Structure formats: C-alpha cells, structure tokens
Amino acid sequence: LSLAFTLAFSPVLSAQTVISPAMQAESPPTLETITVSADPLGTGSDSMAVPVEVLDGSALVLKREATLGDTLNGMLGVHADTFGSGASRPVIRGQTAPRVKILSDGSELMDASGVSPDHAITSEPMLARRIEVLRGPATLLYGGGAIGGVVNVIDDKIPEAIPEKGLEGFAELRGSTGSNERAGAFGLTTGKDNFAFHVEGLKRRSDDYRVPNWSGGRLNGSFEESTAGSVGMSWIGSRGFLGMAYTNTQSEYGLPGHRDEFAGCHPHGSRLHCGGHGDPADGSDTDAHSHDTGVHAAPFVRLKSERVDLRGEYRDPFAGVKKVRLRSGFTNYKHEEIEGGVVGTTFKNRGYDARVEVEHAPIGGWRGVVGLQGSHSDFSALGEESFLPKSITKNAGVFLLEEYRLKDWRFELGARRDRQSITPDGNQPKSQLNGTSVSGSAIWNFAPRYSLALSLSRSQRLPTAQELYANGVHLATNTFELGNAGLKPETSQNIDLTLRKNVGDARFAVSVFHNRVKNYIYANTLDRIEDFRLIEYAQHDAEFTGVEAQASYRFNPHLTATVFGDLVRGKLTGNAGNLPRIPAARAGVRLKTHWDDNWSANIEAYRVLRQDRLADYESETPGYNMLNVGIAYDGSVGASDYTVYLRATNLTDQQAFNHASFIASTAPLPGRRVMLGVRMQY
Q1: Residues 351-408: pLDDT tens digits?
Q2: What is the 3-state secondary structure (H, E, C) of 489-534?
Q3: Residue 636, exposed/middle/buried by CB under 10 A (0-12, 13-18, 19+)?
Q4: Which of 174, 242, 267, 535 has the most CB atoms within 10 Å of its CB?
Q5: Is 361 in contact with 341 (CB distance < 8 Å)?
Q6: Quick check: 75 and 586 in contact, CB under 8 A?
C-alpha cells in the first residue's frame, strides 16, 4: 500500500521518468466512461457508490477461462470457489452463491449453481462481450440474493442495433497445454431495415489438468466438454428495440475429490456415523484415498439447459417517462450426476425471471427508476443424493432508486420490498417471508480528478430452500446437510468507503468496508470424519471487514505499472469463531506495455498468503505465489481485425490450494499452462 500511494501521489517519480520528444507529443489518454448496464440509472463505472470493475475488450479475451469463477478470479476483491474445470463460482468479498447474483444482462440465470459449487453456471465467458462486477450489496436492484455482490454478463445474443455495414461478427480458436484444451467460438449479426438476426456457437473440450507434485500427475475428474449455441432476433426502431433469443447449453464435466465410501454416512444427533454404528472410522481409509490416483473413473455431470430470453427498451414512450426497460428469461435446466455409468441423482429446475424498470423524468432535480421483479422456480433433486425435497419458490419485489446532483456531489437513495414463498413437497412447513432493504450514498468530487464515495445500506436476505429443507448426503461437497425450517431473514448493516483518482498518469482506488449481519445463515459443521462433514444450517451474528486497493502509474505512453491487494475477514461475533472458506489475503504487481501499435504484453505476479484463520473442523491452507504472462499481436486483413495471443498461467508451476473451495485439499489448482489463440472480428 505504501508503494501504491507513492506511485499515486509522487510528482517526483513522474519528473524523473525519461520521456522521448515523440512521447512528449502524445497527450495522456482519456478513457471513455463505461456505462454500467447493471445500474438502471446508467451510471459510469467511476461514479458509482459501490466499487465496480468492468472486464471487456482485449482484457476479457486474455482473461477468459472455461468457467465464470475462474475468469473473474484475480480481479480486486474477487476469488473463486473452484471445483475442477467444469464448475467455479465467483466469491466476492468472502461471499458466494446464494449471496452473489449471476445475471445475464440483468436477468437471473435460474440454473442450479446456487445450490452447490459443483453445479456449473450456465453463462459462457467465450461468448460474453462484457462482464460487470459490483462488489458489495446490490439488494436494492436485484433482491436479497445480491447481499454480497452482482456479476452481470453482457452478450450479443439479442441485437440492440442494426450493424453499420449490415454484417458483423467474430471467430476465435484457442488451445492450451496442461489440460489439452481445444476451444472454438463464433458469432454473427446481420440486419436490414428494422430487423436484426444473431447466431453464435461454442465448442470446448479439455482433459484432466496437470498438477505438480501430485500422485498420478493429473487431477482425476477435472475434465470438461461443452457446447453452446444461440439464435436471436430483434425489431429495432428509432426509440428502442424488442428481441428474443433461444440458447442451448450442454456440458459434461468431472467431479474431482468424490468420496463414494461415505454414501452410507448418517447423523445420530450431532454426531456423524459412517459404516457400523459407533464406529465412525469404519469405511474411512485416509491413506488409500487422500490423493486421487486416477485409476478409477471419476463421476461426472451431464448438463443440459434451454433458455429463452426476452429483452426490450422503449425511450420516451410518453410525457414524464424517459425509458421503459424489460429483461426476462425462461430456463429449463437439468443435470445428472453419473457414476459407473449409472445416473445417481438428477437435478431439475424450471423457472422464469422477469424485470421491468421505468425511468421517470426529473422531478425537483431527482432522477430515478421504479421497478418490478418477479421469479418462479420449480426445483427437484431425484435419486441417491436427493438431499433436497421438490419445492416451488416464488419471489416478488418492488424497488425505487433516485439520484440527485448538486455541484460536486451526487446523492443516491433507494428502497426495495421483497416477498418470498417456498412450498416444499412432503410434511415440511411452507415458508413465507418478507424482506426490506434501504440504502443511501454520496459521491463527492472534492478536487479535480479525485472522488470520495460513502455508501450505507440495510439489506435483508431470505433463506433458500436448501437452507430450510436440506436433509441428506451430498457427496460432491463431502457433506451430510441438515436444513432448518425455522430460519429467519438475515439483516446486514453495511458501510463502504471508496477513495478514487481516475484521470491522469497516476490513478488509484482504495475501498474499505464493514458488514455486520444479524442472523447470518451459515453451514455449521457439527462433526467430521476425514474430509466428510456433518453440517447444519444455523444462524449467528457475523461480521465481514475488508480492504481493497490498487494504484497504477503510467511511466510513458508504452508502460504502466499497477500494484494491488485485497483482504477480507469473516467471523461470528462474540468470539464464536471464524466463518469457513474465507479467501486468504492477496497482494501483487502488474506491468502492461505496448509498442509499434501492434504488440502488447503483460506480466502479473502475486502472493496468496497462508489462511490460518479457521472455522471449526477446517484445515489450514498454505500460501503460494502465482506468475502469469501474456503477449498479443493485433493486425488486420482487409476489413477484418485479428488478434493472436499467447498466455502462460502459473508459469513457475506452483502447487496451489484454494481455501475458498469445498474440496481445497483434494483438488489443487492447475499447474503451468500455456494457451495460444487467435480471434478475428469482421
């Protein structure tokens, strides 16, 4: 942090940098303000009260992995609860699903990724145009499930404008060592008069990835194969558009760390029994199974998702209304968990999400949006691991967000009311709960190029069907889960303070936050045998405190250096212990350079510290170093532009374990990988 502030504030360093006359002739770049689609007011990313980071363009091309969590991992305040190659969810400020919402251009995905980390997110990074990450509570916009943050994936499946030349698109091929990944994707948009049509597709396949110093050399069950495709069509007018798209996603991926010898485990009170009663060690051989040798075939998931999206926007429909915006989606999701050629458990979810936002004309200087959101989910788990009863979850919410500007100040006020009902099969009681969230924030541009943002909020999250009604073995996470039908809403009081400098050669952003949560719902471990745990969803007051900082300095038009770091602490109040799977602190440096208008390169080195602040029955995770390098060449052929890129991750081939993962000790991160790809845009 000392280095960060030195780079940000020291004019001496700038004066001592050697700059050629040609460089002096170039003026410092002025970055285009990025409008955040996840904010209905269309606020720029540098002007929002909560920290926002946007990944797009060449940065997104070089950063993309097979899963959304792995793609975003390494962004400030963002980690991933890795689960092999096929499933990985974002962890924002120590929290993941169901407290982090994953959206497709503002609409919920309605898959099963919120139930378990082994359930893949049905959003494909290779087909994304932009990914927005909101760190901190966004419950006013997207409900109680966004108490930790929001990830909004923007795609092109529904055209919003007619291509200028009548036709535009992209094609990309890539391959990598380490997992022998082969992937290809394409997208094509065409249009004439008032109609536009879009088609896109993807195919990817990878084998078990290599792990240094690991028995067998590779992580058994870390393979993945996916296909995805969309067709979409829009009517586009002078004041808006209305379009629809159909998306089909199919995937097969392994489940590493699976321990089927625990299938017969069951609780007796707060104790866990496996094998014979009173003999918890029966059937548990630590030495035989601590490292997966790859001799036996790993279980895998076969996933299929069909989704229909409807999006529209109408500007200035009548006096007093500036814009009406519609986002909705219907999903038919199914995945089967297969072992030994036999389907053990089938998860299904049929659901829809619909959201309407109305932006009103300024009233007394206040500009704002009123919105309605509703969702319906019919979820079931059938088979050996049917630890959840069939249930129907309905949500309805209404929200208001207002903005006022006064000289160098921008103020925001908002409120949201949610109502949720969950109806389970069987004799379990029905859950009907309400939640209320309010927030206020102020952004002060106290000097040229500098701003200070303060956000205060009270947010409520309602318990999920899993937290209320779970009862059974869940081998993917090596747990026996017990729900609690008496859970109450959890209420968090949040404060976030962010200092920014976004213009000039020296730039920085520092955020500190503190969240105090009443009746925090967490998976309390009651007993453990080896890596298998008996967990019960319980409530206790909790606190999250953290800091995120980064600073960059542009030494000349061709070289920029950045230092960064983040830290989060999560604990139960009253000296009741730490919360599980809280990511370790992280700090590092990045260098970016470009030359000859065609070549660019970057190098990133960071340290993840040892995590020894542990919850009950949790094991310490050692720290590790990570070194990543990338280089790209941009060129053109006729009217088409292309990029050839080479990227190396974990260049020093470190063995690394992710503390945020449910299977941290049995599924280390990949070793050294080198990826070569080419992308053409036309």
Answers
A1: 999 999 999 999 999 999 999 999 999 999 998 778 899 999 999 999 999 999 999 9
A2: CEEEEEEEEEEEECCCCEEEEEEEEEEEEEEEEEEEEEEEECCEEE
A3: exposed
A4: 535
A5: no
A6: no
Distance CA 441, CA 216 (A): 54
Report the alpha-carbon distance of residue 232 to residue 234 in Å, rounded.
7
Q: How far apart are CA 609 and CA 496, in angstroms?
A: 24
Handedness of CA 52, 249, 91, 650 (dihedral sign): negative
Contact between residue 384 and residue 347 where contact means Cβ atoms under 8 Å apart: no
Q: How far is CA 397 from CA 119, 310, 412, 419, 612, in A?
A: 26, 19, 19, 6, 40
Distance CA 655, CA 658 (A): 10
Residue 615 near residue 645 (C-beta atoms within 8 A): no
The string of pLDDT tens digits covering residues 478-507 is: 889 999 999 999 999 999 999 999 899 999
Contact criterion met (CB below 8 Å) for 491 and 459: yes
Mean pLDDT of 82-99: 93
Pairing of strands 149-155, 100-104: parallel
Q: Which of 325, 374, 36 is nearest to 158 (CA)?
A: 325
Question: Quick one: which of 325, 323, 344 has its CA closest to 260?
Answer: 344
> Phi and psi for 309 in degrees, rounded to 5?
-105, 145
SS3 267: strand
**What pLDDT was estimated at residue 10?**
37
Q: Which two tokens stand for residue 3?
A: 């280095």
Which DSSP helix (H) or strand (E) runs through 136?
none
Supply the pLDDT for residue 33.
58
Contacts for 570-575 with beta carbons within 8 Å, 24 or more apart? 570/94, 570/95, 570/542, 570/543, 570/544, 571/542, 571/543, 571/613, 572/520, 572/522, 572/540, 572/541, 572/542, 573/516, 573/540, 573/541, 573/542, 573/543, 574/541
Q: State whether residue 355 is helix, strand or coil.
A: strand
Quote helix, strand, coil % in the chain, to nearest 5: 10, 55, 35
pTM for the model = 0.90
| Average pLDDT of the segment spanning 601-608 | 97
- Which residues neighbour 60 within 8 Å (Cβ) at sequence distance 6 or greater? 125, 128, 130, 131
DSSP string, 522-565: EEEEEEEETTEEEEEEEEEEEEEEEEEEEEEEEEETTEEEEEEE
Place of tokens 């097969």: 252
User: At a CB cut-off of 8 Å and minimum separation 6, what does 318 contact?
Assistant: none
Q: What angle do CA 583, 589, 594 make, to 5 degrees?
A: 130
Cα separation, 375 vs 364, in Å, equals: 34
The tokens for 114 are: 């919120």
Quick check: 625 and 650 in contact, CB under 8 A? no
Q: Count CA atoms closer than 13 A to 676's CA, side-chain side.
A: 2
Q: At a CB cut-off of 8 Å and minimum separation 6, what does 34 contact?
A: 44, 45, 46, 54, 56
